[in-house]
Amino acid sequence: MQLSNSKNHTDDYTMNGSVIMAPESPVYFPSPLVFSPRSVKTPSSSPRSTPPKLSMVACPPRKQKETTSVPDSNTALKRKRPPMLDLKLPPAVAPWSSTTAKIPGKEHEVIEAEEDGVYSVYCKRGRRGPMEDRHVAAVDTDGGVRKKAFFGVFDGHGGSKAAEFAVKNLGNNIEAAMEAVRSGQEGYSVERAIRDGYIKTDEDFLKEGSRGGACCVTALISEGELAVSNAGDCRAVISRGGVAEALSTDHNPSQANEFKRIEALGGYVDCCNGVWRIQGTLAVSRGIGDRYLKEWVIAEPETRTLRIKPEFEFLILASDGLWDKVTNQEAVDVVRPYFVGVENPKTLSACKKLAELSCNRGCLDDISLIIIQLQQFVP
């Protein structure tokens, strides 16, 4: 059983003076004076003159992200991630494995790992600054039979501390909650166990007082059952006989259901430099951390469970650095030649190909992805 994950440690930082953030950054710190685009001063005019038209600052149309679960996906807008810190690997997740992993130095721009016939991991630092993405990949075997596995991609913003914390704790917290499921406790389910694991991880991170947050997408495999969960805009896509299907929904404040939830809690969603943001600040509506926006940015994941079938080929977990530039079906089409009809598939080359495709299309963000060969877990 091998474990592959990543971690870095960077102290919290303070911002002094005037700070200029990239327009597409998910973390945006507005100036103390915030003017609404709808507040327009109308010059005086005579009764006979034609009233001047109000000048409105509108969000320009942007290429929409793919999603399958939200009916109002036409309103979904894209955003990018800001540069922050560098990259190291955290300790192994205790309940899964204690395998030692290579810890890269600050000069490393790429992290890659592969367990033949099971999964491949590829992480590439973006062009804006140090890496904020993290990942975990752990497979447990019983008598040579792979029965349980946990995979996750964590996309940090405002620093990498939340992503690092999730790598070290989320799998453990889910595993602890799963004990109630195995014991047959009334009213408990896999979905509830995963939800409790996410929320406990969020609560524990907030107690540390660190800033920043992280979007998460995870896959828990146990006894032939697959449970995919996400909070934020990391995405999971499965290949069913070559047809791509998203198993997660991107959580952006521009989505109708998220927009209504935020406003019902007394928050607002505003357009800042062409990106819809909560309180004019954050461009995702769910995730771990973000303590200053916790009233509106929830850690509750959406989970989808299904039985692994022979037609399930592989699962792709990736940060938005990939999905911003590559569609679901394009990703599946790139991976399949490395998988279908190959006696011993090694999908690391496919991971690299996907990252290269996103970069060639102009991605400046960190890119992290895991390809999981589901045939290894068919019951």
Automatic annotation (TrEMBL):
Q: Is Chloroplast included in the keywords of this UniProt record?
A: no
Note the superkingdom of the native organism.
Answer: Eukaryota
What family does this chain come from, according to its entry? Belongs to the PP2C family.
Q: What is this protein called?
A: protein-serine/threonine phosphatase
Tell me which InterPro entries the record gives.
Answer: PP2C, PP2C_BS, PPM-type-like_dom_sf, PPM-type_phosphatase-like_dom
What Pfam families does the annotation carry? PP2C (PF00481)
GO terms classed as biological process: abscisic acid-activated signaling pathway
- The organism of origin for this protein: Raphanus sativus
Q: What is the lineage of its organism?
A: Eukaryota, Viridiplantae, Streptophyta, Embryophyta, Tracheophyta
Sorted alphabetically, which SUPFAM superfamilies does this protein's record hold?
A: PP2C-like
Q: Name one GO molecular function term.
A: protein serine/threonine phosphatase activity
- Gene of origin? LOC108830888
Residue stretches making up the PPM-type phosphatase domain: 118-374
Q: EC number(s) in its UniProt entry? A: 3.1.3.16
Q: Which UniProt keywords apply?
A: Hydrolase, Magnesium, Manganese, Metal-binding, Protein phosphatase
Q: Which residues lie in Polar residues bias regions?
A: 67-76
Q: Does the keyword Metal-binding apply?
A: yes
SMART domains named among the record's database cross-references: PP2C_SIG, PP2Cc
Catalysed reactions listed for this entry: O-phospho-L-seryl-[protein] + H2O = L-seryl-[protein] + phosphate; O-phospho-L-threonyl-[protein] + H2O = L-threonyl-[protein] + phosphate
